[in-house]
Design a protein that fits this description.
This protein is α+β, with helices and mostly antiparallel strands. The chain is built from 5 helices and 8 strands, in the order βαβααβαβββββα.
């Protein structure tokens, strides 16, 4: 693959988990378990079984139908499920440019999307001229 003089350039737009995503409640995420309730099946006497019964703080009923050696819990709607939900926060994505030369990568983040697009277009124009 031919690249620009000085190496190959790659670009990406990303939303890092740590800075661009926040925790969300089941209600704000519109979690299906929160809306409709759910069933969880775990091995009898397992760490999950003990946690659900004595530490989870959730309301449940034990229901029939589980496989032998398993217990089935029915959780009603309107309570927090066991998943972690995340939502994008109102923040612009990161526009990154990476230049790869002889096994070394130099990276930079551009704050303005217009600049990222302009640089990308300039590089495409240079490649077309070759």
């Amino acid at each position: 693959m031919r690249g620009l003089p000085g190496g190959i350039v790659t670009r990406r737009i990303r939303w890092p988990l740590q800075s661009h995503w926040g925790l969300a409640t089941c209600a704000t995420y519109d979690c299906q378990h929160w809306r409709k309730g759910w069933v969880t099946e775990v091995p009898v006497g397992s760490r999950q079984d003990v946690y659900i019964r004595s530490e989870s703080g959730r309301e449940f009923r034990v229901v029939d139908g589980g496989a032998p050696g398993w217990v089935r819990f029915l959780f009603s709607a309107g309570q927090t499920c066991f998943r972690t939900h995340r939502r994008k926060v109102e923040r612009s994505p990161l526009f990154e440019v990476h230049r790869h030369v002889r096994g070394v990568t130099k990276s930079r983040t551009l704050e303005e999307p217009e600049r990222w697009v302009d640089n990308f277009q300039e590089d495409l124009d240079k490649l077309r001229e070759d």
